């Protein structure tokens, strides 16, 4: 397998995970409006939806590509589903906050250095 193919497959995997996180968020919001929140915690709903979507995606993708699924595909798919759930639960809000804080700190550092040079 060449490096070009590896990078191509990694790019597809990254795009797929991003789409799965988005779909998980959308479906979770719809499901939370339908069911009672006290009976089912939101994190459990997100985890279940992420796992189902990830398994469906991998099974359909392997079927279309003609890839035989071995036992370890299911283990990797479960781990990937947990990562999708983590991204759906913590990803966008925390990422946005962390990026905003980092940009503010960077701006403060840049302008403080410029102010020090002007003095």
Structural class: mainly alpha
Biggest sheet: strands, sense, closure? none
Rg computed from alpha carbons, rounded to a whole number of angstroms: 20 Å
The helix fraction, in percent, is: over 70%
Count of separate structural domains: 1
Extract low-pLDDT stretches. Answer: none
Measured between the Cα atoms of the first and last residue, the distance is 58 Å
Description:
- This protein is mainly α and 119 residues long.
- It is built from three helices and no strands.
- It has helices at 3-34, 42-65, 71-118.
- Helix 1 packs across helix 3.
- The longest helix is centred in the last third of the chain and has 48 residues, at 71-118.
- The mean pLDDT is 82.
SSE arrangement:
Layout: H1 3-34, H2 42-65, H3 71-118
Helix pairs in contact: 1-2, 1-3, 2-3
Give a quick rundown of the structure:
The chain contains 3 helices and no strands.
Question: Which properties best describe this structure?
Answer:
about 120 residues, mainly alpha, flat
